[in-house]
């Protein structure tokens, strides 16, 4: 059996100065500081980060969660090339429109490419290259979860606004506008489910389409004081919109004192971190790239596209920002790098000499529990006190610790289970441990909330 051992983990803990505000000229937030301090991520260049093993476990869990939900809407996972031929972006007009954010490069023949910031053009071009495919083959939803590149003017807050970041981008192809609207509603439901699983408050608001284009767009936000967007929510008619969107429709940047939909003054303005964006694109990209299908009447027609982004690495940073304490990370429980850590007595202690069951035995016992499969860490650094290892577990954000203390030397032995998110403690036998970790309700340490209606 492979045992995940803390002594083997590459988790460089660094002592950043308290309340540090800059790394390499980049502003940092509480979440960045926590993730840098605790060996979750490391900065490589401004806005460019390494995911270290603990951080990558969190990212992998979020990717798996998203993959699972996307299977319910018949989305198929692909991987588009990172390099996009500049001619595709010239065709859509975006080569000019977002020029300053593009990372551009040339090959040895002087042909221009981009490090792709998003893939509307690439996916539309793929479909166009198939020639005329029957209407029966649609709808089609293709997505990927990959690195995206944007030369942000002000990279800041670590993974929150990076220059290389992980995005889930999905592109839908429908044969007419009604069907693409159905797909849009289905994708919004899917996003609601993903955020519900993360058990973190979110708000869905009307958003601007900006240089992306299209007819309808919503943004998903996690409310937080450090969010760069302002969200307007009406307490009477449930209208919610990004302030930028409202400014665009009323064509002024004046203060908003009432709901643009029902005129009620019962409105709330909060800051939000944009973690998802959905766009009903219509024919903008299919026209530019010539993405057509063969209609029932035998004629070629343009496909209707949708684009659905999720800021995967930004979700991680935003969740840590919102849930954590000043000195200890709290993850959405489903994303915690390990669900539980086992801590045995210090080497040479009297408990160590009298243990009835070793930490490895406990590990083996728990490894059969479905909800814990490969999700237990054995902190085998027995030269450290239990207290020191508990503190590190709490700082890294493991939701539970199982401690083999003095009661583990009794017959039958009792193990202390500590919920490191709320400090609940239980003494359990080996069998009760298995029951405890088999019950998924014991993982619901964060509250579940519902989205605002739009
Ligand atoms: P923003 O307004 O924050 O710059 P955007 O509207 O330009 O974001 P989209 O093109 O909608 O971003 O990209 C889809 C999602 O990717 C966003 O909702 C966001 O969660 C994420 N994202 C965008 N830019 C970044 C970035 N620089 N770093 C991390 N995540 C990002
Ligand atoms: Mg956006």
Average pLDDT number: 94
Helix residue percentage: 25-40%
Question: Cα-atom Rg, whole angstroms?
Answer: 25 Å
CATH topology of the largest domain: BirA Bifunctional Protein, domain 2
What is the CATH class name of the largest domain?
A: Alpha Beta
Class computed from helices, strands and strand pairing: alpha+beta
Q: Find the CATH superfamily of the largest domain.
A: Bira Bifunctional Protein, Domain 2
Please outline the major beta sheet: 9 strands, mixed
Overall number of strands: 24
Molecular shape: elongated
Beta-strand content: 25-35%
Distance between the termini: 50 Å
Q: Bound compounds, please?
A: adenosine-5'-triphosphate, magnesium ion
Poorly predicted residue ranges: 445-454
Q: Structurally, how many domains make up the residues?
A: 2
Count of alpha and pi helical runs = 13
CATH architect. name of the largest domain: 2-Layer Sandwich
Describe the structure.
- This protein is an alpha+beta fold.
- It has 2 domains: 22-323, 2-Layer Sandwich (BirA Bifunctional Protein, domain 2), CATH 3.30.930.10; 338-446, Rossmann fold (3-Layer(aba) Sandwich), CATH 3.40.50.800.
- It has 13 helices and 24 strands.
- It has helices spanning 30-37, 53-71, 86-92, 94-97, 120-128, 177-198, 243-250, 284-289, 312-323, 350-354, 359-366, 386-396, 430-438; strands spanning 22-23, 26-27, 41-45, 48-51, 76-77, 83-85, 103-106, 112-115, 133-134, 140-149, 164-174, 203-206, 216-223, 229-234, 240-242, 267-282, 292-294, 300-302, 304-311, 340-343, 376-379, 400-403, 415-419, 425-428.
- The strands form 6 sheets. Strands 5, 10, 11, 12, 13, 14, 15, 16 and 19 form a 9-stranded mixed β-sheet that branches. The chain has a 5-stranded mixed β-sheet with strand order 21-20-22-23-24, sandwiched between helices.
- Helix 1 (30-37) crosses helix 9.
- Mean pLDDT is 94; it is low at 445-454.
- The structure holds adenosine-5'-triphosphate and magnesium ion (MG).
- Magnesium ion (MG) binds next to strand 16.
- The site of adenosine-5'-triphosphate has 15 residues, from strand 11, strand 16, strand 19 and helix 9.
């Amino acid at each position: 059996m492979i045992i995940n051992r803390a002594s083997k983990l590459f988790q460089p803990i660094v002592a950043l100065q308290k309340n540090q505000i800059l790394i390499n000229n980049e502003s940092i937030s509480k979440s960045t500081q926590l993730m840098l301090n605790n060996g979750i991520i490391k900065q490589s260049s401004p806005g460019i980060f390494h995911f270290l093993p603990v951080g990558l476990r969190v990212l992998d869990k979020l990717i798996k969660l998203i993959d699972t939900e996307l299977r319910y809407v018949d989305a198929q996972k692909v991987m588009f090339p990172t390099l996009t031929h500049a001619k595709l972006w010239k065709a859509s007009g975006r080569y000019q429109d977002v020029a300053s954010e593009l990372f551009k490069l040339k090959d040895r023949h002087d042909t221009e490419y981009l490090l792709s910031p998003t893939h509307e053009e690439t996916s539309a071009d793929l479909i166009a290259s198939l020639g005329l495919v029957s209407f029966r083959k649609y709808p089609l939803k293709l997505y990927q979860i990959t690195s995206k590149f944007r030369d942000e003017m002000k990279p800041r807050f670590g993974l929150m606004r990076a220059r290389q970041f992980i995005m889930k981008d999905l592109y839908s192809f429908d044969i007419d506008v009604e069907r693409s609207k159905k797909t849009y509603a289905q994708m919004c439901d899917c996003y609601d489910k993903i955020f519900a699983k993360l058990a973190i408050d979110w708000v869905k608001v009307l958003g601007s389409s900006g240089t992306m284009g299209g007819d309808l767009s919503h943004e998903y936000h996690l409310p937080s004081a450090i969010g760069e967007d302002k969200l307007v929510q009406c307490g009477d008619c449930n209208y919610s919109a990004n302030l930028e969107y409202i400014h665009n429709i009323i064509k002024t940047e004046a203060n908003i004192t009432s709901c643009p939909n029902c005129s009620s003054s019962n409105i709330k303005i909060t800051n939000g971190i944009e973690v998802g964006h959905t766009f009903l694109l219509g024919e903008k990209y299919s026209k530019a790239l010539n993405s057509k299908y063969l209609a029932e009447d035998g004629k070629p027609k343009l496909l209707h596209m949708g684009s659905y982004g999720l800021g995967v690495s930004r979700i991680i940073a935003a969740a840590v920002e919102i849930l954590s304490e000043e000195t200890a990370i709290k993850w959405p429980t489903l994303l915690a790098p390990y669900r539980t850590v086992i801590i045995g007595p210090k080497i040479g202690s009297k408990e160590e000499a009298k243990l009835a069951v070793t930490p490895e035995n406990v590990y083996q016992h728990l490894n059969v529990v479905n909800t814990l499969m490969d999700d237990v860490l054995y902190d085998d650094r027995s030269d450290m006190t239990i207290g020191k290892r508990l503190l590190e577990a709490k700082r890294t954000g493991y939701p539970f610790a199982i401690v083999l203390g003095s009661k583990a030397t009794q017959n039958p032995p009792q193990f202390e289970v500590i919920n490191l998110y709320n400090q609940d403690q239980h003494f359990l036998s080996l069998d009760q441990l298995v029951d405890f970790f088999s019950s998924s309700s014991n993982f619901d340490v964060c509250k579940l909330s519902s989205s605002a209606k739009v």
